[in-house]
Each structure stands twice: as structure tokens, then as C-alpha cells.
């Protein structure tokens, strides 16, 4: 019993630190860029964007907007991590550029509210 409780506790702590990183001199943290910059990058480029989800267009597809423009984003339900987001909330998303013949979108790996 104690072993299983300890395993769950350790897994919980580790899951909260998955996106932790050092930000400061010498850091390799990805800087926030604009939608306009992101859609010009190559396939599979890692990006961090800050803006708003404007509307949901399909089950896991949303229109994301910042001051430079709009882009479609794909966010899996579990990536919301029990966070409620409205069009008025500023969020930071990280993920990768996904290009096909007709559009560029961002496949989101992490989402957080900006305070």
C-alpha cells in the first residue's frame, strides 16, 4: 500500500515539473514569437506564442490570434490540464509548426494562462 501511494506521489510531483526550465543568462529557453513569424518557419519548428483563442472550429481545432495575425491551432483535450480558457484570456502556447498543402497550423503541446 505504502509503495503504491509513494509511486503516485512521485509521479504527481514529476508531472508538474515537465515544463519547468531555467530562464536567464545562457538559457536555451524558446522565446515568444508572433503568429506572423511562426507561420513563416519550417515544418516541425518549435514555437511559443502568446495571444487568445478566438473560437473553436472543430473538436480539437481553434483559431488563435495575436497582434500580428491568426493561425489555426490543434490542442488535445488533455493539454488544457483542467484550465478553462475564454476568448478574453491571454494564453501562452508552445508546440510545433505543422504545414500541409493548404495551411499552416500549430500542434500545441502545452498551454498556460498568462497572468
Describe the structure using short key phrases.
single chain; 115 residues; alpha+beta; OB fold (Dihydrolipoamide Acetyltransferase, E2P)
What does this protein look like?
- This protein has 115 residues and is an alpha+beta fold.
- It has a single domain, classed as OB fold (Dihydrolipoamide Acetyltransferase, E2P) (Beta Barrel), CATH 2.40.50.
- 17% of the residues lie in helices and 39% in strands.
- The chain is built from two helices and five strands, in the order ααβββββ.
- The chain has helices at 2-16, 35-38; strands at 46-58, 61-66, 69-75, 91-99, 104-113.
- A five-stranded mixed beta barrel has the order 1-2-3-5-4.
- The protein is globular, with a radius of gyration of 16 Å.
- The model is unreliable at 5-18 (pLDDT under 50).
- InterPro entries: BOBF_sf, CarO-like.
- This is NirD/YgiW/YdeI family stress tolerance protein.
- It comes from Psychromonas aquatilis.
Unreliable parts: 5-18
Number of strands: 5
- The SSE string, one letter per element, is HHEEEEE
Ends: how far apart? 40 Å
Tell me about the largest β-sheet.
Answer: 5 strands, mixed, barrel
Structural class: alpha+beta
What strand order characterises the main sheet? 1-2-3-5-4
**Rounded radius of gyration (Å):** 16 Å
Mean pLDDT: 83
Work out the helix count. 2
Strand content: 35-45%
Helical fraction equals 10-25%
Proper CATH architecture: Beta Barrel
Apparent shape = globular
CATH class: Mainly Beta
Q: Superfamily at the CATH H level?
A: Bacterial OB-fold
Q: How many separate structural domains? A: 1
CATH topology title? OB fold (Dihydrolipoamide Acetyltransferase, E2P)
